[in-house]
Write a structure and sequence with these properties.
The protein has about 100 residues and is of the alpha+beta class. It has a single domain, classed as Signal recognition particle, SRP19-like subunit (Phenylalanyl-tRNA Synthetase, Chain B, domain 1), CATH 3.30.56.30. It is about 30% helix and about 15% strand. A three-stranded antiparallel β-sheet has the order 1-3-2, covered by helices on one side. The longest helix has 16 residues.
Length: about 100
């Protein structure tokens, strides 16, 4: 079994503008991103300088029929909500280029 500490799990559904909060979105609509992929999240995390691992096979529990994958990030003591905002801002910045 995977050791959870110090890694936090982030699913693409957390950032998806087309999902509702009930469907897994964790960001306000104005910060959420349309059509976000695992690669977008990975490049944002890499740009922010965090240690991470990508897992392609896991399924998000609310949409078990899809295989979006997930990313495990070493948060270095940061709260998940703060890190979520940082990543979303970085994705928006890289998509606007």
């Amino acid at each position: 079994m995977r050791k959870r500490t110090p890694f936090l799990i982030f699913w693409p559904a957390y950032f998806d503008k087309n999902r509702t909060v009930n469907q897994g979105r964790r960001l306000p609509k104005n910060l959420a991103i349309e059509k976000v992929s695992l690669k977008d999240i990975e490049s944002a995390v890499k740009a922010l300088g965090y240690e991470y691992k990508v897992e392609n096979a896991p399924k998000y529990p609310k949409t078990w029929w899809e295989t979006p994958g997930r990313i495990l990030i070493d948060a270095k003591g940061k709260k998940k909500s703060k890190l979520l905002l940082e990543i979303a801002k970085q994705i928006r910045k890289s998509k606007s280029k």
